[in-house]
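Figure-free illustration: sequence to structure, shown twice.
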Amino acid sequence: LTAWDARGALDWTDSVWTGSAQYSRTVKLPDEEVERPDPLLRTLPAPGLLPELRDLAELRASVAPLGGWSLDASGAFVQVHQAIQSLQAPTASDSVTTRDQALRLSNAGQVLGWSGQMGVGWRGKRTHARTQWALGWTGLPGGSLSRRDTRLPQWQSRSNLGWSRGLLDGRLRVQLDADLRTWGESWTWTGSQDASAHAVRLPSSSQMDLECQVGIRTFVIDWRIENIFDERQVPAAGWTPPGIRAGWGITWNFGG
């Protein structure tokens, strides 16, 4: 009877303010990611685990004080029961342990966490801009927030600047967007041949993307360049994606 899903929300709004308070409980059943080997070797499979229960409480508020401007803020608190994760988190001072302790998934116990986010946006006739910053803290298994789980970055941000305009009496539309994402450092385990695991630091980094779209009647031609400043990114131990990436595409809308 304890493995149930639920969600409740209270929303309010007026001409300037909007807000909401939400509570949800979700049940995450062990899936193939838990019972089969991880292709990136970040975890070891562990069949027969119990479901993970997640209680999440959120508060959100936004205000539009002046024409075109908007401000928003949100906060969340999460409580995870029977969290599916490895028992030990890596740190600079606690950098070597057994491979099973570091990588083997288990029902690690209760995990607590919180996060906060703030954002500012502006939208004009042809231009829009927005930036959001988030800070979070997830504790280690055991129901305490005294020590942070370093496997997750503590902060991240996203900013966007865009411009669009219609030409030739609306038959041609041009849109330009610049998107910047940043995130803090984290740590991960990597296994070795002697049945031990070593802590590896994944450094903080950023990524700037540029996108251009040209719409001509029913066609949209899209060009995109990712990571234009060639920032070094390490999403997993030993994996460094290519620096600058580019691509293009065509979308044909049939209508209806």
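We now fold a second protein in the same way, so the two outputs can be compared directly.
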Amino acid sequence: VNAGDYQATAARLTNTNYALPEAYDDETGLINIATLKDFTILVADIDVTLLTKTAYYGRVLPIEIGGNIGNGAVTYTILSAVDRNGNAVDPSQIADISADGKLTPKDLGKITVKIDVAETRNTHAGTVTDEITIEKGTMPLDLEKTEVEYGSTLELNVTGNEEGGNVSFAVEIGEGDDGEATIADGVLTPVLAGTVTVVITVSETDHYNETTVRVKVTIKPYAVELAWENFEFTYNGEEQAPTATVTNLFAPDVCEVT
């Protein structure tokens, strides 16, 4: 129900032993005011609050506010900013805020934001001024390629390391993993076909915290080549068949054909 003037009507009772006064007087033709009551819903004041107090470099963040119960139009203004050392700087060096309230960090520091909520049919206008701190983010690390064939090697090219942090790798057997591999100098060498988990760690940089991610790598079986022998037999009452030999094994692997 919106703000405004209304009239309530007492329409029924839950106890059948009682009755409402007659709502209409037959003699006078007047409505019995005992069953009616005028009332008013006033336009509300709102208490606007900033819920988003921290943003992280490298991640666009929708700003959340509280108190906008009338869904009034919202405008955002960055009033001032300081860098990570507390020095006053141009706000555009630290962050931008789009018209729809998405904050894009540009550097570490702190911004002071004024948020205005327009009046609506049911609420007065409201405003709040508060601070948002931009802290170091988490790197969006991944591997450029996540498949390798047994017998080959996979160079582990990492994406998302924008600031060139030091990279280290490890192999672990995670949930559902059934393969094996080794890693040396950023190159994965398959040992057993299946899946393995590669642990990537990049050291802290100017705008990012040290970040560790786990990426599944699939080791596909190598397609063999067969050489067939013994194509003609004389019936002897026993099972007979040609024999096949794998000709392209990787030393020292052993593989028989059955």
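Summary for the second example: Residues 169 and 184 are 8 Å apart (CA to CA).
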